[in-house]
Amino acid sequence: MFQVILKRLLMLVPVLIGITLIGFLLLQVMPGDPASRAMGTRASPEELEAMRRLWGLDQPVWVQYLYFLRDCVTGSFGVSIFHKLPVIDLVAARLPFTLGIVLYSTLIALLVALPFAIMAALNRGNPVDSAIRQVFVVLIAMPPFWLCYVLILWLALGLGWFPTGGVGDGFAANVYRLFLPSLVVGLSTAALIQQSLRSALIDTMKADYVDTARAKGLNGRAVFLRHILPNSLISTISIIGVRVSWIIGGTVVVEKIFSVPGLGSLLIDAIVSRDLPVIRGLTVFFAIMVVIVNLITDICYALADPRVRLE
Amino acid sequence: MMNRLNFRAVLLATTMSLAGLAAQAETLRMAMGYDPVSLDPIATSDNGSIWTQLLIYDTLVRPDATGEKLEPGLAESWTVSDDGLTIGFKLRDAKFSDGTPVTPQDVQFSIERAASEDSGWGRFYRPITSFEIPNDHEIVMHLAEPFTPAFNNLALFAAAILPKAEVEAKGQAFFDAPIGSGPFVLKKWTRGSALELTKNPYYWQAGKPAVDDAVLEVVTEPSARAIKLEAGEVDVALDPPLNQIKDLQSKPGVVIGEVIPYRADFVQLNTRYAPLGDEKVRQALNYAIDKDALIKGVLYGAGKPAASAMPVMAYADPDLKPYPHDLAKAKELLAEAGYPDGFEAEMLVDSGIATQRNTAIALQAMLSQVGVRVKIQMLESGTQWETTKAGNYQMSLSYTTSDTIDPDQIIGFVAVNPERANAYHTEWKSDRLNDLYAQERQTVNGPERGAMFQDMIRILHDGAPYIYLYHPATVWAQKDYVKGFSVLPTSNFRLEDVTIEK
């Protein structure tokens, strides 16, 4: 196991070199330059030139690339043009909120999806199953920005149970403040999980080894917990893995509406202002996170299903 | 026994009175849409950073509340020599927030820093070539040649006065916990989320600021700002969505404020593109636009029609009227120019701003009435900027804003060719206007210089290298217990006079 993890982490190196190259070249062809974004209507051409010189943007592309590689290796991931801070510091300030939403929303998703998936699978074909299905189809179809505002208007403005947005100091404050944004993200994850887990459970229930287990005389509860559920979780784990990779950088809409300073909005703001070092640094950082999440996903497969071997 | 009871009673009374005192500490909470990136005045140009800096630092002079002239800041008084080459300032007894006095050396250091190579604003301050410090309260600045905007530029945030010793000792780290002589001090900065300010105990305006703390919350989503105000989480919400203003106004305890800042919205016309090279065609497009309808429909009434690409600021000509909405005249001009059936043109629009998108759609409908068929091309703002800069466009919906109260900066940008941007990339050129611009910069402030600006703006109005649209208002929503809050025409706000009267 340990060796496998080590091997996977080593595989990060070629992946990252590829990512740095692609990320860097894509930014070279992106129109817009940070100097004119920063100075807007005020600067003369000479001043724009001076700005570019100051930020090292007048260097040949390959020199800029080497600087970028150096910054990745030394761990700073470059220095933001506008914030004047190492990208890693900007990421570190926002990572707790993003990770908070990742873990919190996944927890909510599991709490919502597992009972309903099991209930639906056990009541396959009867009205309970179809009622649950209809509710979750509505959940899938709800656009997150809309759900955000519905929850704000209802739970925050109407009932006053939650703040309308923003983050707080410390763990407890944020468990409270991040609840609504995590609920929005969590409910869409739950909708995905519920549907696939329900069908996986139904498939597994038909498997021969389940019949065998019953034939051995195991009671229904033990058969379900020991054989059916673990064997059905593979698809759930895949979905969570993919969702987590996405949530790390992709919850901009939810972050903006709830004023959560997460990594997604950092990326969007950097793109709008053409803060090239931040865009590049975040691209590499996201790539690292995706590889790590995939690795954790694979480990979870092995834990859930002993037949899966990590090689 | 008695003693102990007494002690308890005293303790209880003390705690209660302390609690009472604490309750009196007033905090003003605001939601703004911009996330400040840096508090270094020479390295920033975004609204969030500028607005925050102006609460922490002082400048020698500053725009007054009307935005029409400058009032004393750190300088108590000043003299400008008749040839415009010498500006003398008398400093007031002011202290930085660490208690050290503001000296002429700090002033010299800050202005030299603003003029340095590392500054994004160097051009504004390089005309000041030398300094003279006759005593602890005076500083004299010398210019090699007359440059009238220099004085105004000292009111800009980039010329904020910083403590020399501190900045030299700490370098860039100074700006993580900056020290200024302004009304507020930075207490805590959670990037992307909020800035907490507390009052500067040494502030030179005795008894101000009236509030003890001010929190600037970063809420980039306009609807979320309005909701925060409604939920009572903030006292002031800047720039709520325009379509929610009526609704907000009807809520008890909510007041809407409105100010027309230094901003003008327009459509850039690339005069190198065949039909748009003809002045008559450009004027026809101006006659074809119903500005009042735009303001009513797109801005929900929050704005004024524009007569030129210049914001309405010092020296503005009250007699210059916007192009009237006159379709017959527009058709006539188009026919005279040889386009009786109109023509086709593509208009670039920033896809990220709802108001811009709505305006573009309205313009498309209005121009189609005179036969001009506009194709709208939505672009991300950076791409739009680059495309117009490269001259690769026909029409582009855009705007300009001014940080200073003097029109020199903006006219140089929107009307002078070549200068900085070839008349904002319209490539339009008026030799007469160029001459006036050169003269204005060497003429001492006064009616004569004012007349030059009025002439220039009239030439710009007639030449019509833009379709002039409107001056949109800056709107804010606030609770009625907040008194004395207003946005200035320079778009920033001062908080030292704000009180909370619950």
Automatic annotation (TrEMBL), chain A:
One of its GO terms (cellular component) is plasma membrane. Pfam families: BPD_transp_1, BPD_transp_1_N. Residues 95-297 form the ABC transmembrane type-1 domain. The chain crosses the membrane at residues 9-30, 101-123, 135-162, 174-193, 233-258, 278-304. CDD domains: TM_PBP2. It is found in: Cell membrane. It comes from the Bacteria. Keywords: Cell membrane, Membrane, Transmembrane, Transmembrane helix, Transport. GO terms for biological process: transmembrane transport. Its main location: membrane. Gene3D superfamilies: MetI-like. It is a multi-pass membrane protein. Belongs to the binding-protein-dependent transport system permease family. This is ABC transporter permease.
From TrEMBL, chain B:
It is found in: Periplasm. Residues 69-411 form the Solute-binding protein family domain. GO terms for molecular function: peptide transmembrane transporter activity. GO terms for cellular component: ATP-binding cassette (ABC) transporter complex; outer membrane-bounded periplasmic space. CDD domains: PBP2_NikA_DppA_OppA_like. Residues 1-22 form the signal peptide. Keywords: Signal. Its main location: periplasm. GO terms for biological process: peptide transport. The keyword Signal applies. The keyword Thylakoid does not apply. Belongs to the bacterial solute-binding protein 5 family. This is ABC transporter substrate-binding protein. It comes from Paenirhodobacter populi.
